[in-house]
Design goal:
0% strand; 70% helix; mainly alpha
Length: 117
């Protein structure tokens, strides 16, 4: 059941990997692909690392939104749909970090279970 709870986290990281790969930043894309593997470790630091990555990812989406919207505005092209889509992805990525506040997920990564799944 925890897999379903953690699915938004995995999806957010996969979207970030695709974003970085499309931008040509392959090492960061690879990191985003590897990060979900940390979810198998029942260590106390895993939620912190995931939340940090998701918050940074959300900021990256907002920065991309700003850059792409600015470019489209400068070229006198429509930018509203772009803003809605990237804003939604940024919100989804940020909200995915809240998954680690649920009781079941907190229990999975509690100090009493410091061992590998």
């Amino acid at each position: 059941m925890n897999f379903l709870r953690l699915l938004p986290v995995i999806l957010s990281l996969l979207l970030l990997a695709a974003h970085f790969y499309r931008a040509g930043i392959v090492p960061v894309a690879g990191l985003c692909l590897v990060l979900p593997a940390l979810l198998f470790f029942r260590q106390r630091w895993v939620p912190w690392a995931m939340q940090g990555a998701l918050v940074l990812g959300s900021l990256e989406w907002l920065l991309s939104l700003y850059r792409f919207a600015s470019l489209r505005i400068a070229l006198d092209q429509p930018w509203t749909r772009l803003a809605i889509i990237l804003g939604s992805v940024a919100l989804f990525t940020a909200m995915s970090a809240l998954v680690f506040r649920s009781r079941a997920v907190k229990q999975r990564y509690s100090p009493s279970t410091d061992y590998i799944a």
